[in-house]
Amino acid sequence: MNSVSEAISRSVLYVESAREIWLQLEKRFRLSNGSRKYRLNKDVYSIKQNGSSVSDYYTRIKGIWEELDSMVDLPKVSVANEEIAAFLRAFGRMQEQQKLF
Predict the structure, then answer these.
(1) What span, in angstroms and rounded, lies between the C-alpha atoms of 6 and 59?
(2) Domain locations in the chain as residue ranges
(3) What are the Retrotransposon gag domain coordinates in residue numbering (predicted)?
(4) Residue 67 to residue 98: CA distance in whole angstroms
(5) Which of 18, 60, 66, 84 could serve as 80's disulfide partner, Cβ 3.0–4.6 Å?
């Protein structure tokens, strides 16, 4: 239990298995990701360049985009036919275009 904070460790101290601990923590922290996603989206739409350089502005907004991308919880595709591959390419383009607005 040295990998988590003392407070979290106490909350899962009597859980039977590592799998159950993982499931409980995943459920608990997935809920907080919703509010974090909301805040990041709000930040994206309200960010302004103001007096910063284009490079600094882009670096800030790209960091937000990357954090949002890391929170996307899509299932893994192990076997993809051409139709699924086309869908995934279109989905990726849609996500990139969404960053423009």
Answers:
(1) 35
(2) 6-74
(3) 19-73
(4) 15
(5) 84
- Distance from chain centroid for Cα 11: 24
Angstrom distances, CA of residue 93 to CA of 59, 87, 90: 21, 10, 5
Q: What's the predicted TM-score (pTM) here? A: 0.53
Compute the distance between CA of residue 51 and CA of residue 16 in angstroms, rounded to an integer. 55
User: What does the pLDDT read at residue 59?
Assistant: 93
Residue 98: what pLDDT?
80
The letter for the amino acid at 47 is I
